[in-house]
Design brief:
The structure is a homodimer of 260-residue chains. Chain A is an alpha+beta fold and 260 residues long. The first copy, chain A, is built from nine helices and eleven strands. Chain A is 40% helix and 21% strand. In chain A, strand 10 and strand 11 (241-244) form a beta hairpin. The structure holds a DNA duplex (30 and 30 nucleotides). Chains A, B: This is Helix-turn-helix domain-containing protein. Chains A, B: It comes from Acetobacter lambici.
DNA sequence: GGGCAGACTTGATCTAAATCAAGGTTGCGA
DNA sequence: TCGCAACCTTGATTTAGATCAAGTCTGCCC
């Protein structure tokens, strides 16, 4: 159910995971390759310098804890590469993954003193960390940034509602079809060259993670994916990817149509 | 599954549901009895006048459609009395209620052109309606209001994550226990006299609504509530209320402890 | 105050997905 | 290149909750 032998994002404040030189760092946001797919696209040049100044860049290996359920909510993060999983747990270990944050997505927003969720890297992740006071200064100094964040949180809420529909009312088959299409969309938005992403879904997470995301067991996820493969709706591809052979059929299944 | 023979919140723009006199309306927000439990507590006197000017008050009977899935997102609402249900549906009619908005809660925020969810009154509801351009003006003119809205949406997102944990990983028993405790908390926050709300949960919605909220069937909800009643964990009370006889036990059940 | 519609409860049976139980695959480190 | 650990797949069986099927309760309109 869990697997983090790694360090936390806070473990070594001066450690090697951090970008080493502050002066190089002033340019970081200006030259960031995924800037325009993130919150940061609300910033002008001056704002980008302020962003770079307010944040530190972290490079984290798979299985690293970024945020721990119940710990003080000290920071806000922007994912710039890789995939992060967000989750909540019950005392006996049952876990629900509430979302995956791919490059361009933020995480760690909280109005409470402590985080109500955990976050852990799925693969190799690069992210920008903003400490809370610094984030608050940014919000006050750059109204367009605050407005953009409001829009981003509103979008996350709509996504969460969609996921509630999935968890509460969809069948295993419908859940897995929805997941694969969502991962295709995520890869499409994240991939540098659009061409190569065509009909490919990026699935860097394990079956355990997928099951905990969809409210299923790993066996049911595995069986359902196998069934889709047998029906030639999908095929395996390299690098933890899945090729969607029939988007239309999968869309029908995902939206609850009988069709298959 | 559905039940709205009533008018929509947009049906009669000049109709009787609206507060009749504009000059009385200038004071509306200033004298609002639940102001301090809502977004509006971020406003000074001048701001409250602007709020009153930017919004219209609506009084709606049970079963009225406030927002329709897929319709243009023209307005934002603040509930000031009663309970509203928010939901998403699948083409075949399966429905997931994503939340109940009680007095003091907002609804209708959307970055898309259309609403991705529906909203309908559960009982007699009073709400303030802000058209989109007016809301945007308010956000720009009153930074504290915008900051407060950001905090409110962030809280809604945390709530949604909690509900995903419930939908994906809790048993029927745990779901119903969680629901009853949440309704007790909601009533406690909404009730005028705190005393009378002690250990009472307000449950104005039908079994169908509860089932669609918890990802269960009405039969399972009914059986589970009956079982709690038989175990003397709860008892019926007047006015669609339920008295919680053992908060501690229900808390244990809700959080996944074996205890009962 | 009788009847009826909508909401709720309870019981019997069924089934989708969970659980239990073996293997099979893959990739990495010695 | 061998061995092992983590991950994944497939099959058999069980079960929590769904579905099917009657009732019962409540309040409201005539």
């Amino acid at each position: 159910m869990t697997s983090s032998p790694q360090t936390s994002a806070f473990a070594h404040p001066g450690g090697a995971a951090y970008a080493p030189k502050a002066d190089v760092d002033v340019m970081r946001c200006l030259v960031c390759d995924i800037r325009n797919r993130s919150l940061c696209n609300s910033m002008d040049e001056e704002g980008l310098a302020a962003l770079a100044h307010s944040s530190r860049q972290l490079l984290l290996p798979p299985g690293t804890t970024i945020v721990e359920e119940g710990e003080p909510a000290l920071a806000f993060f922007n994912v710039t590469r890789g995939t992060v999983k967000l989750f909540k747990s019950l005392p006996d270990g049952r876990r629900q993954i509430t979302g995956f944050a791919d490059a361009g997505q933020f995480l760690g927003l909280s109005t409470a003193q402590t985080y109500s969720f955990g976050a852990e890297t799925v693969d190799n992740v690069r992210l920008c960390r903003f400490l809370r006071p610094q984030l608050e200064t940014l919000l006050s100094d750059y109204p367009t940034f605050e407005r953009r964040l409001l829009a981003a949180v509103t979008d996350k809420l709509a996504e969460a509602q969609e996921q509630m529909l999935l968890l509460g009312r969809k069948t295993a088959r419908e859940k897995v079809a929805t997941f694969l299409l969502d991962r295709m969309k995520a890869f499409h938005q994240t991939a540098n060259r659009r061409q190569e992403a065509e009909n490919l879904a990026s699935v860097p997470m394990t079956r355990v993670d997928i099951a905990d995301y969809l409210g299923l067991t790993i066996e049911t996820v595995s069986r359902t994916i196998s069934a889709f493969r047998r029906s030639l709706l999908i095929a395996s591809a390299e690098n933890h990817r899945i090729r969607i052979l029939s988007v239309a059929t999968l869309l029908n299944i995902a939206s609850g149509q009988k069709a298959d």
